[in-house]
Amino acid sequence: MSTSSFRDYLFTPDHPRVAKLRGLDARSYAEAAKDDSFAGPMIEGWKKLYPAPFVGVTSDGVLREGLFPVAQALPDEEAPSSDMVTAAEKLLALLPSSEQERLSYAMDAREWQSWANPEFMQHDTGLRLDELEPAVRDAALAVVEASLSPEGYTLARSLMRINGFLGELVELPLLMNEYSYNFALYGSPSETKPWGWQLFGHHVALNCMVSGGQMVVSPVFLGAEPDIIDDGPHQGVKVFKERIQWGRELMAALPVSLRSEAIVFEHMQDPAMPEGRLHPGDERHLAGCFQDNRVIPYEGVPVSSMPTATVALLDKIVADSIAYLPAGPRAARFREIQEHYEETWFSWIGGWEGDAAFYHRIQSPVVILELDHHTGVFLDNDTPAPFHMHTVVRTPNGNDYGRALVRQAALRAEGTEK
Predict the structure, then answer these.
(1) Are the CB atoms for 199 and 222 separated by under 8 Å?
(2) Own/partner pairs, 287-291, CB within 8 angstroms, 24+ separation
(3) How far apart are CA 99 and CA 90, in angstroms?
(4) pLDDT tens digits for 225-273?
(5) Residue 401: how many other CB atoms lie within 10 Å
(6) Kind plus residue range of the DSSP H or E element containing 153
(7) Which of 26, 79, 126, 300 could form a disulfide with 262 if both were Cys (CB 3.0 to 4.6 A apart)?
(8) HSE (CB half, 13 Å, CA atoms) of 257?
């Protein structure tokens, strides 16, 4: 499929796909979506998964312990805890007690697992940004900004603006706008004890936990439909271009035999896929929303078998996938991922030449990175296209939401009390 213009796939204004949603906001669509032929089955499927007690994603159903020790972070690798606390306290100071209560949850609250990436709001967790006064909304985003790298915050805001751009294109601004996202806090902001925050909505979901100098930002879902803003005040915004190119270059650089092994399915909508492999919403993604306990077996080729030049391209993809982290935690995370390259697998679905749509996954005991090109939801392409993509980051074996670190911090505190 050509990527010349996503505008070739815009629905006409009177098409039922968009016309029937016109005038609905997030809350009214949350009810209407339950009976929608596309959203309804997804909602029912996800209901069966939430709120299951958290275990963590594994490769074989067995949780591997000891992968995420509580450690004294190096001085240049510490999380920006002080700036995060300052931003969170400013936000709380702007809110009356009733809204503080709606915003705030316990560290082990099941609501932390309620995030989702579709445009319909399945769970109304925390506060909705597009319902807040601008000063409060900006204060919530300031918490996000204080926690991420400059490029990470820019990417998140770009994706939010693309969402607003899409809402304008299909005349659904109440449903999809720059601020149609939920924000919540978990625990009490502290420079020494675990706490965190969550932002989620259409194509943006970030879950951040900080404990002293250590930080975990996962699960992360970042996506876009379309992948560019070609008009208006944010014209020129583009996302994921380099990562997609590096994926193609990696496949081209693999020896033929390894490339053949890496390809799990030749086609994005492959008849050879077993039942359930292609999800109506997640498509080829395996680690998306409500998949906190999924068993995802390794597939493809081991990274240890790749030539050095190919591993260098893999490094670029990994670095770009975690670039949302501030410099210190990003360096620590990158080192952690590289240290497990001997146990890392790379898999691919689809083509790699030209502008072919594709899916790839990088998976090890400490990370899952997915990128998937999708069919249209608010664009009318019925086969996957590079102008609509989803990306997912997971920390398997129990450390999504920083749960492994939080558990160890609690045990340490109990030991101190004794």
Answers:
(1) no
(2) 287/57, 287/219, 287/368, 287/370, 287/392, 287/394, 288/117, 288/221, 288/390, 288/392, 289/46, 289/115, 289/116, 289/117, 289/205, 289/219, 289/221, 290/46, 290/49, 290/50, 290/113, 290/116, 291/49, 291/57
(3) 14
(4) 999 999 999 999 999 999 999 999 999 999 999 999 999 999 999 999 9
(5) 28
(6) helix 150-169
(7) 300
(8) 4
Are the C-beta atoms of residues 336 and 366 closer than 8 Å to each other?
yes
Decide: 29 and 121 in contact? Cβ < 8 Å: yes
Q: Is 217 within 8 Å of 207 (Cβ atoms)?
A: yes
For 319, phi then psi, to 5°, come to -60, -40
State phi, psi for 328 to the nearest 5 degrees.
-65, -60
pTM for this predicted structure: 0.96
CA nearest neighbour of 221 among 203, 242, 246: 203
The verdict on whether omega for the bond into residue 13 sits within 30 degrees of 0, i.e. cis, is: no
CB 244, CB 390: distance < 8 Å: no
Give the number of other CB atoms < 10 A from CB of residue 108. 14
Residue 344 half-sphere exposure, CB side, CA atoms within 13 Å? 22
Radius of gyration, CA atoms only, the chain: 21
Q: What is the DSSP letter of 142?
A: H
Q: Reply yes or no: is the peptide bond before residue 118 cis, omega within 30 of 0.
A: no
Cβ count within 10 A of residue 41: 12
Q: At what angle do helices 134-147 and 150-169 cross, to 10 degrees?
A: 140
Residues 167 and 175: their CA atoms lie apart, in Å, by 7
Q: State how far Cα 347 lies from the chain centre.
A: 19
Q: In angstroms, rounded to a whole number, what is the distance separating the alpha carbons of residues 330 and 76?
A: 11
